[in-house]
Each structure stands twice: as C-alpha cells, then as structure tokens.
Design brief:
Strand order of the largest sheet: 2-1-3-4-5
CATH superfamily of the largest domain: Reverse transcriptase/Diguanylate cyclase domain
Number of strands: 10
Oligomer: single chain
Helix content: 55-70%
CATH topology of the largest domain: Alpha-Beta Plaits
CATH class of the largest domain: Alpha Beta
Strand content: 5-15%
Structural class: alpha/beta
Amino acid sequence: MYRILLVDDEILVRDAIKENIDWKSMDCELVGDCENGKQAAEFVQEHPVDIVLTDILMPYMDGMELSHFLHDNYPDVVIVVFSGFGEFEYAKKAIQYGVSEYLLKPVTAMELTGVIQKMKEKVDQIRKEKRKMESLTRTSENYRANAQIIRSKTLEALVNCTVDIQKSLAKLEEMGITLSGCGYRVAVFDIDLYSGMYQIDMEKRQESALMAFVLFNISDEIVTRENAGIVYQEGNNRVCVLFQEKWSRNFNGRIKEICGEIQAELHKVMGTEVSMAIGKWVKNLEELSASHDNAVSALQYRYLIGGGNLLIDMEEKHPVQDIDLRESLDKFKEALKSGRKSEMEEKLYSIEEKIKQSLADKSRACMYLQQIIRAADTAGEEVSPDIHRIREERSNLLIQVTEQKSFVKACEIVHEYIMQVYDALTELNTSSGERQARMALDYIQKNYMDPNLSLNDICSYLNISTSYFSTIFKEMTGETFTEVLIRTRMDKAKELLENTTMKNYEIAERVGFADAHYFGISFKKMTGCTPTEYARENRR
C-alpha cells in the first residue's frame, strides 16, 4: 500500500482529485488532504507518508517551502508539484529540493494517474534501498559501534554546531583529541561516482557507504601521519577533514598536497575518483560551520568545471556571485537576427565562458542559460511574425537543460535549440531583402528618438549601399525610409500627447526632432491638426 497526501488550498481541486482517481485499483490510500504547506508539514510529522502531491501557491507555507522541509527532514518522501505557473524559477527550486515531478495545471486524472504509477516505482526503489542499507547496517554493527563512528558523529556535531561546543570538546577530550589550532579549515571529500553528478543504478549506490569507509581509512592514515588535523565521516557517503594550523605559514600548500595524496591513494587502491573542496580559514571553533558550508558549496562547481577528481581551494577561488550578460546577449541576438552564423556562435561561446568563469552554482548557471534561450526567442520575434514555429520546439527545453548533470551537456542542448532558431529564421526569411527590411524597421523602432538618425546609419548597420537599401526597403514596405521614420516619430508623439502632460517642445525632443517648430509643421501635415489641438481632443 502506498500512502499519499494531497496539499492544495483550493477545496474544489482537492475534491476533484479525491473523486476522480481510482486509488484502490492502484494499491494507494489517500491518507489525508491539507489546504496549505503548514498543515501538511504537521501531518507528515504525525503520520507515515510515501508520496506528497502539492500545489505551489498556498498561504502560510507554499509548496516550495514544504518541498524544502520534506527534502531536509523526510528525504524518503517522494514529492510531486503541480502549479498554474511554468516559470523557470519554480522548476529550478523544484530540482534543488528533490521534487520528482513538476506538472502544470490543469492536471487530468489520466495524467495524474500516470505520474502516481511512476512515483510508486520510485517509492519501491527507496524501500529497496532502505532494506539493503538496513542489511548493511546489521552486517556492519561492530564497525558502527567502534570509536571511529563516535568520533565522527562528535566532530560532525561540532562542525555543524548542532551540539553545544563545550560538550563536543569534552567528549573529544575523553577520546584523547584536543583542538588547539590557531586557525581551522574544513575540507569535504565527495566520491564522484556517488555524487548527484552521475546517474547510477540503485544497487551501485549501495556501495557508497562502504566506499566512503575506505576513503575514511585512507584519509585518516595520511592526515594522522602528517599531524595535520582530524578526519571524520559525514553521514554515509562523505568524508571530511578538520585541518588545524599548528605549523608554519606554508600549511596552506601542505593541505593541498595532503588532499592530493589522498586522491591518488584512493585511485590506486579502489580505482575511484574523489573531488575535494577546502573551505576558507576560520579563527575559532564557532565559525567551523562557515568553513564547512563554504567547502560544500564549492563542490557544486563540478557542474561548471566538469569532470571529477577536482581539488578546489576556496582561499584561491573568488567566485563572482552575479555577472551582467546584457551587452553580450544583445550582440548575440543581433548576430542571430542578421544571420551572421560565425559571429553568433562566437558570442554564444563567449557568454558560456563567462558563466564558467563566474563559478556559479547549478541553479544560477541554468538561470544564465535561460537568458540565452530568451534572447534567441526575442530575436525570432523581432525578425519573423511566424515565431510559433520556433516556440513549438522548446516545450520541455528548460526542464531538459536543468536535468543535465554537467554544464557542458546543458550547453549542448541550448546550442541545438539556437541552431533550430537560426535554421527556422533562415527558412522564414527566404529573401535576404525581406530580412534586411525587417532589421531596418527594428532599427528605426529602437533609434527613432535620435535626431541625427539617417539613411546612412541604417545602411552602415546593415552593411549595404544606400541605393540598394532604398530599393529593397520600398519594395518590401511600400514606403521610403524617411516616410517610415516620420510616421514612427508621429505615432510615438501621438502616444505622448494622449497619455502625458508634456510640453510640445519636450515631446518634439523625445521623438527625435531637434526643432520644435519643424515638429509642429510636420505633425499638422500628417494629422491635419496641431499638436495642441490633437492633445485637446484625444488626451485621456
């Protein structure tokens, strides 16, 4: 039997799902339904639940906050999120919090039934893994009872500040361990094969606890030999080292050498690669968690850097929290619009390199890739009215990008989509003259307010002669450049006259007329009335 909890603040939605799903035939039981995340969190604490179906937007605690709570406190619960919003930010958080499915409302009974069947398989995998781990625990009972495990748990509590520091220090002293360094760093070791970077089957994952034990022993032997700090195991899969400085100022370099030796020895003994991140120096034990969290965050750089067996020293790395891609994206977009393929690809690679150099975490890197996709979409909209042909190609694009285990793979998907946009625009704009005319119209829309805008400016932008441009522009639009420019300026002037209280000379300047008198003459010639008369009749 699979226990399911439904969470949605709309009672009609809850009733519809309860009544339209044949729970019994799927060997499922709807154990409860809650109207917000707060009620759901309290329910899960009191009742066993296998699968949670939750909406996103709810009062008190929304679906993302509930997913975060379940991810941290009940990792065995399978989460399915459904929402009326397809925003990337939600999908990004859903991935971060271990959500298994992200569905867009409205969700049909057939669709939800199919998803529940998939989630049952995931629950079965979790149960199978748990049984194997319990079996492993029973066979390793002697190991778990020994002093190394007690030491690891004590150090983990000390570093993560989950127990009073003095109590942890007293317990360590009972084991003959004294912390008396003038500075501390926490290093975190993560075996690449068992990290979230790779897809592995459930049976292979069972090896991770024993493999981490091997890593622990190798690390402990080398660190103890060098009198450099204390090794402890964090959970079942990670090994950490609390380095304490007692030596000369060259200790920094020695830490990296020790970590490199551990990497080499593990590969020699087990043929396995391990990535390591060394957190920044802290001066006292109260700050250990900051160094530890710094190292854990650094391990996420594997997504951008790619590969395994990395050694990241956070005293050397200075990641950029935010990068401004607007100028680069504008140049990329213009190259895509104009069909300059080599320049487009050059700009695209340049943007991706900027993202890599920023050492952003996965969610932020995916956000930057989303900006590239949006720039491509905008380019399509500005060049062709038949944009729906392109948009059809990207229904699941953002999810596919975020599902990739490395930045390189995500970029490959983005590249493929960009080329689809490029090919579609090339096909839609079968005539180079049509494309150039559209680009000219777009250029006028963006620069009409410049009083010095001229035919030569546009021809220089398009890199064609004035005579050729005049011919194709008239042929494609039915108007001359000057006629389109004046009409565009007058349309913008009308908008300002209708919706603002700006003076005529201010409007003239805003729409690209250096001479307010000439603006008045041109306006009357086109509309049959003066700007003042037009405003009096049309101002809202």
